[in-house]
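WARN retry 2 of 3 for item q-0093 after timeout on previous attempt; input resubmitted unchanged.
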Amino acid sequence: MARLLLDIRPLRESPAFRRLFFGSTLSQIGSTMTTYAVALQVYTLTGSSAAVGGVGLAAAVPSVLMGLFGGPIIDAVDRRKLVLLTSTGLTAISVGFTVQAFAGLRSVWLLYALVGAQYLVASINGPARRTFTPRLLTPRLLPAGIALGMLSMHVGLVAGPPLAGLLTAAGGLKVCYLADAVTFLAALYGIARVPPMPPDGARARVGLRAVGDGLRFIRGDRAVLGALLSDLSATALAMPFALFPAINAERFGGSPRTLGLLTAAVAVGGIVGTAFSGPVSQVSRPGRAMLACVLGWGLSLVGFGLADGFLLTFGCLVTAGIADVLSVVFRTTIVQTATPDNYRGRVSAAEFVVGAAAPQIGNFRAGVLGSLTTPGLSATIGGLSSLAGAAALALAVPALRRYRPPHLDRPVLAPDPAPVLPPG
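OK item q-0093 returned
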């Protein structure tokens, strides 16, 4: 049983990673509270679901545009300084959300602008932060470190919205925004204590040529290309979230309670998957494991589409969440171990763009197909399409199935010898 549980050795062996983990977890909770608050504030001001959908558009456009072109910046400078700068910028934007709420401003366009600015900065901050883990941990501990990062994200997704609801009921939306601004202090502390992170090897020159170099690297490394295509296929072909309201209305009478549970189910699966992710560090062929997880994702969504009854529907989504989080762990392990450090910023940026755009495409596909047919049939077709995509990749990109990461004894940066500090 102990071997099945989440491997916490990265927290014990690297104080710098430990500080990043706890700081990021608090900040993730705060960020999901802001996401909750923005959606509710926009709906309160407009009464329009389309206006709430505009929040997603305001986030997606800068994520895609800046995500790809921000890669060369990450590979050209000290990443610790860059993440410290961008995190400071995100803190300032969070303060902006707080100020507009306390001031009682009623501008939807201001909220859109703040969301756009937030994701513009995050599209550099996120990929740059991803380059820290392989520099702080040995390759053998890298999958465990990635699993801990996924746990941090899913804790935020599960804990943030309920906490935001309690704070909103007690003091209004402005309290949610204020809490997010405060949690950034923990993240800034963790980043400030990371050692310098200059790229190894030749630094990129900021410009279109550097973007092209990064794309050519991805195209030339079949394992990395296969890993990114696998994620693109699984989410663009099968993302089910847009179907939740319709399936909730069709099967469970439209109860807000069941809709909330369906929405949280995948994140609950993510926590379960990371809690029992101990064996991931022992997997010698992460490409095969990732493809197996994608198969689990597709089969779970087929079950979701065909399910009758709440427990079975909820269970299929939890299982999909388990498969999804483990797939991300294996995919990120491949991307980080197969990519030279001086390309990690650009490849992480491409991974960020895939993660930002593909789910939106998948939800659009699911919603349109669900309107033309039925929500259950749309989910079933999505799951089957994901299965077909995984099978096609397994055959077309054999390098993905065969990939074995290097297992070195030391990280690029030795763990910080600072004494153990309490969380945060």
